[in-house]
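Lecture notes, unit on protein representations.

Consider one protein chain, 565 amino acids long.
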Amino acid sequence: MKKHFTCYIIVAISLLAIQACNKDYLDKSPLGGPSDASFFKSQDELLLAVNGLYRAMNKPMDDYDPGQLEGPTVSLMLDAATDIGYERNASDLQKIGTGNHDANNTYTQGLWTDFYKVIGRCNYILDNAEKVKPLTDAALYKRSMGETRFIRAYMYQQLISLFGGVPLVTHTLTLETAQLPRSEKQVVLDFIFEELDSAAAWLPKTYPAAESGRATKGAALAIKARVALYNEKWKVAADAAKAVMDLNVYKLEDNFPRLFSYDNKNSGEVILALQYQLPVLNWGGPYPLLCRNAGGASNKVPSQSLVDSYECTDGLTIDKSPLYDPKKPFENRDPRLGYTIALPGSIFFNYQFETHKDSLMSWNYNTAPATRIVNQDAVNAYASFSGYCWRKYIDLKDKDNMRMSTMSITLIRYAEVLLTYTEAKMEANELDASAFKAINDVRQRVGVNMPEIPVGATQAALRSAVRKERMYELANEGFRLFDIRRWKIAEKVMKGPLYGRVPRGLLANAPAIDANGIADYSQVSNKADMRVIEVRTFNAGRDYLWPIPYIETQTDPKMVQNPLY
C-alpha cells in the first residue's frame, strides 16, 4: 500500500458500520448486514476491514457515548479514576473515582459494549477471510490475520483486566448462540497468550513510514508481557519483554517531552500508537487538559499526591532528601515531574501558569512583547481544582484547533517493556544484572538522569523502586488503575480525601512517602489548608473489578454479576 492506511478508515467503517448497529455487546452482525455470500470479494475489501479495526480501538475521553468514536483513547482518561488524577465533570467516570458506581454505570457499560463490538468485527474478518485468500498476496494475508488476532487479543486483555472473567467469543454469533456464560479468567488469559503468539509469528518487525500505526511483532510481544504481568505470570512476562528487547528495534527516547508531542511519530521508543489524520479522524484535542488561561477546561487534572511522589534529584523522596525545600517545592526534583505536570510558576502553552488564588494577573507570552492578562487559572470557578494540569499530549501546534488534534496517542512504548521486565524478574526473585539495567536505563535516559538503583538491592527495595518508577514514568498514560488493583493497594489509596494544592500557599513541610510512593499528609502542619477536591470510598470486596453491565445480566440468564454489585 502506497497511501497511509488511515486514509481508508472512513470507507472501512462504512463497510462495517451495519455490524455495529445492534447495541448488544455480542454484536450479532452480520444478521442485518452484508451476508457471507457478498463480503469479502477482494483483497481491498479485506484490507479495508482490517484498517477499520484501528479506528474502532479509539475510545472517547469525555462523557461516554458508545456510538462516538472521536475522542482520546482510554489511556488518556483512566488515570482520572485513580489516586493520581481527577475528573471534574459530573460523569459516570467521576463516579468510578469516588466509588459510587454501580452496574448501570454508562462508562463501564460503554467500554464493555465497544470492546465486544471490536471483537465481533475481528471474528467476522477471521470467519470470512478464507474467501479471498486465493486473491490476496500471501504475505499481506498473513499480516492481516496477525493484525486482526492482535487487536482481538488487545480487547480481551482490556476486558479481563477491568471485569475479570468474561464471555470468550471467538466466532460470529447467531441469535441462537448469543447467550453465553462468563469464561474463567484463566481460560481467557490462555486464549490471549495463544492469539498474541500467533500474531507475533505473523507480524513484521517494522513497517515503512507510510504504514506507521500498524501492529508489529514487538507490539504483540509487549502486550503479552503486559497481560502476563497483570496476572502474575512472571516468567511469561519476563520472557515476552526480553523478546521485545532482543528485537533490537526500539530504544528509549532521549527527549522525554518529545514522546507526547507531534514529534512522537518519529520516536524509536513508540511501539504502537493510534494515528489520526484530518479530515478522516482526530482525537478531540487538548481542550479538556489545558489550563484556563489557554482556553482549556482543566477538567482532568493530576492530584497533589502525584506531585509529591516524585523524588528529588538525589533519588530520595521529598520527606528524606536534604534537597527538598518546602518554599521551593518544585526545584531539585526528578525532571519528569515538570515534563508530566504543569506546575505553578512554569510556562504552559505560552502562558504563565500560576494557581495561587491571590495571583490575580498573569503573563501572556503569545504576544510580543508579553502582556498582562486576568489570571483565569486563579479566578475562574472552574480552573484546575488541584492547582495543576497535565502537560503530556499538550503541543502548541494545536493552539488554533484545540478540539481536533491529530497528534499520535501512544498505546505501547519501550519504557513500559523495560519496567515490565524488571518487575517480572524481581517478583520471580531472579535479581540478576539485567533486571537492574532495565529500570536504570529508564531512570537514566538522557534528559532525566536520575540516580541508579544499586545492583544488589533487595527484592523489597527493587519492588518499591519499580512501583514508584511506573508512577513517575507512566502517569497520564492509563496504567495506574491496573497497577493499584494488581498490587492490592487501591483499598488504601482510593479511600478518603483527594487533595489539591494549598490554594493560597504551599505545604509547610513534606508529607511522609511510603514504599509505594504514596503521600501521607497526617503530619503536615498546614494540612487543614489543603484543598479537598472530593472524598472517595473504596469497597475492597467489590471495587477491584468493574460491574458487568446490568443490561447483560438481565438479558442473559447465564451471565453472573461480579460480587456486591
